[in-house]
């Protein structure tokens, strides 16, 4: 068994249909190597605790591939979401972090092994006998060694005899059980065995780190290793460290290895570009000439706005470059030249999307004379209110806005449409004005969450909300959750809406048929009686599959999971739910 890595990822989104779909995909994805995946519903979206095989690479690739999948039904919602997470494996002391800001079409992924706070290794107080055993005289019997290896004994290679360290079967068993680090203690004979090394590399290419020097000079072996983990380049022969083909493969997945290559190669635009595509921070290690290359710097900024720090002085004074950097990473605004801190276009770019640091950026980077600019203040307030953490201050930007702004119908309406939470800071004259509220929720249905109970019980208001967004039914009064006309509108556009309907309507066949017609997964929220209704289930398993450009089904909607046990075994239902060939 491989070393088990631990991971955690947070997905921030208000799109409930997307989150439900993502949870299903995560359950079916590479997130449970060493135990069940732990999916937690949060106010901001979904958090996931999981395990991986040696690392969390497969999980990060899962998100990268899904973001790039143009056939994915919720691709836009995924791109609009914010993703952050980390993964680490204590045994080999490897850790990485991921980040995707809202609107970004790429997942940023970087190695943080050196910065990670690892648990201190305990110093063992070995007795003389134990010390002798750990040196290799403890286990001389092959069967005993194989049994110890199967029990994930991380010290097994130090406990076995020199003869067993040269036994392929024993070493392979230990390798499968505890990972590539054990190979450090294998015999020199096995470390130089090309065929055996190749067999181990099929399990974990990192084994090349501990192979004989002549194998670290074998281009084919090194290529296979760096394709999996570019960091292995550090252990390759000096000659291969300058091989462009090897370098391109290594930089494609591990940008940081650029710091290990010689100065001349850091002037190679193609090589540096490969690293930058992986992480814009690689610009730090480029030659001065390339740091002044606008095309290259713009590419770095697409990945990481903070890469502006490493650009040439000339490019730091280029408005197009600065605008791109601030748009990507708003915190960069605090480090740009003073002339740009007063540029309205650049300031507005910092608040164009949801920004967890909006409060800090607004307070510390926007000049005081522009903090009461209506357009800038509205953009900053929206960005801050939509952030999941409201990081950087205990009060909202809008809370401190001038009263005349908050009383301005046009201004406050604009802010509320952009960020429904703003309703909580609007004066009573706005919050209780039915006409204004309807104009707002017709553009953003979920703003109904922040209106008073009287308006949540007003059918006209609720109808406007669910037409805009079916999930708004969650905030309607109990009476309107039992209103068939309201619920029919909601379930026709949102799979989550049926969950919020009254128990009576969850048992109403017409309502449930409308819900599963829109999305088969709505069957989860139907009454037990209708989960046993063949007509309802048949419709559910046939609708809303994920399809490719040719219209072929490439992923099912999982609705069969929610049918009654009898219908789960019904041949007609099973046939209808199978993927198209």
Name the overall outline: flat
Number of helices: 35
Profile the largest sheet.
Answer: 6 strands, antiparallel
- CATH H-level homologous superfamily name of one domain: Api92-like domains
Overall SS class: alpha+beta
How much is the radius of gyration in Å? 29 Å
The low-confidence runs, each spanning 5 or more residues with pLDDT under 50, are: 122-137, 390-394
Question: What is the total tally of β strands?
Answer: 8
Q: Spatial order of the strands in the main sheet?
A: 2-3-1-4-5-6
Helix content: 40-55%
CATH architecture of one domain: 2-Layer Sandwich
- Name of the level-1 CATH class of one domain: Alpha Beta
Question: What fraction of the residues are assigned to beta strands by DSSP?
Answer: 5-15%
N- and C-termini, Cα separation: 35 Å
Q: State the CATH topology of one domain.
A: Alpha-Beta Plaits
Q: Indicate the mean pLDDT.
A: 85
């Amino acid at each position: 068994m491989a070393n088990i890595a631990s991971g955690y990822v947070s997905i921030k989104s208000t799109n409930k249909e997307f989150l439900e779909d993502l949870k299903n995909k995560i359950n079916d994805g590479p997130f449970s190597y060493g135990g069940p995946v732990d999916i937690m519903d949060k106010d901001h979206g979904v958090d996931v605790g999981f395990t991986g095989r040696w690392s969390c690479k497969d999980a990060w690739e899962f998100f990268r591939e899904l973001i790039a999948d143009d056939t994915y039904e919720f691709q836009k919602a995924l791109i609009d979401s914010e993703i952050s997470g980390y993964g680490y494996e204590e045994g080999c002391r490897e850790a990485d972090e991921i980040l995707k800001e809202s609107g970004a079409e790429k997942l940023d992924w970087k190695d943080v092994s050196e910065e990670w706070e690892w648990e201190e290794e305990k110093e063992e107080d070995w007795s003389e006998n134990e010390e002798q055993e750990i040196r290799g005289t403890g286990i001389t019997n092959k069967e005993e060694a194989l049994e110890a290896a199967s029990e994930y004994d991380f010290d097994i290679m130090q406990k076995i005899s020199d003869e067993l360290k040269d036994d392929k079967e024993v070493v392979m068993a230990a390798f499968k059980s505890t990972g590539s680090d054990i190979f450090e203690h294998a015999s020199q004979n096995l470390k130089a065995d090309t065929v055996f090394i190749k067999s181990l590399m099929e399990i974990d290419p990192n084994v090349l780190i501990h192979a004989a020097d002549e194998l670290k000079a074998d281009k084919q072996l090194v290529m296979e290793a760096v394709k999996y983990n570019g960091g292995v380049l550090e252990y390759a022969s000096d000659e291969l460290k300058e091989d462009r083909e090897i370098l391109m493969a290594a930089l494609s997945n591990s940008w940081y290895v650029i710091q290990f290559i010689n100065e001349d190669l850091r002037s190679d635009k193609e090589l540096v570009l490969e690293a930058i595509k992986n992480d814009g921070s690689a610009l730090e290690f480029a030659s001065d000439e390339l740091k002044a290359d606008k095309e290259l710097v713009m590419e770095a900024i697409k990945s990481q706005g903070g890469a502006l720090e490493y650009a040439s002085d000339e490019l730091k004074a280029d408005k197009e470059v600065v605008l791109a950097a601030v748009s990507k990473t708003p915190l960069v605004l605090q480090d740009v030249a003073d002339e740009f801190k007063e540029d309205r276009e650049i300031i507005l770019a910092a608040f164009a999307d949801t920004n967890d640091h909006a409060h800090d950026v607004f307070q510390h980077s926007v000049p005081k004379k522009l903090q009461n600019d209506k357009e800038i203040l509205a953009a900053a307030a929206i960005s801050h209110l939509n952030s999941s953490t409201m990081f950087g201050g205990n009060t909202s930007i809008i809370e401190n806005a001038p009263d005349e702004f908050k009383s301005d119908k046009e201004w406050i309406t604009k802010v509320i449409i952009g960020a429904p939470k703003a309703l909580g800071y609007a004066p009573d004259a706005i919050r209780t004005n039915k006409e204004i509220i309807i104009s707002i929720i017709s553009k953003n249905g979920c703003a109904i969450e922040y209106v008073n109970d009287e308006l949540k019980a007003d059918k006209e208001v609720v109808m406007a909300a669910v037409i805009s967004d079916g999930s708004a039914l969650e905030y309607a009064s109990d009476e309107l959750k039992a209103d068939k006309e309201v619920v029919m509108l909601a379930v026709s556009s949102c799979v989550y809406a049926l969950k919020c309907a009254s128990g009576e309507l969850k048992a109403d066949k017409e309502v449930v048929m409308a819900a599963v017609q829109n999305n088969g997964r709505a069957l989860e929220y139907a009454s037990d009686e209708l989960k046993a209704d063949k007509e309802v289930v048949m419709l559910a398993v046939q609708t809303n599959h994920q399809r490719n450009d040719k219209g072929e089904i490439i992923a099912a909607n999982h609705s069969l999971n929610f049918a009654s046990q009898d219908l789960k075994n019904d041949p007609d239902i099973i046939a209808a739910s199978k993927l198209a060939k």
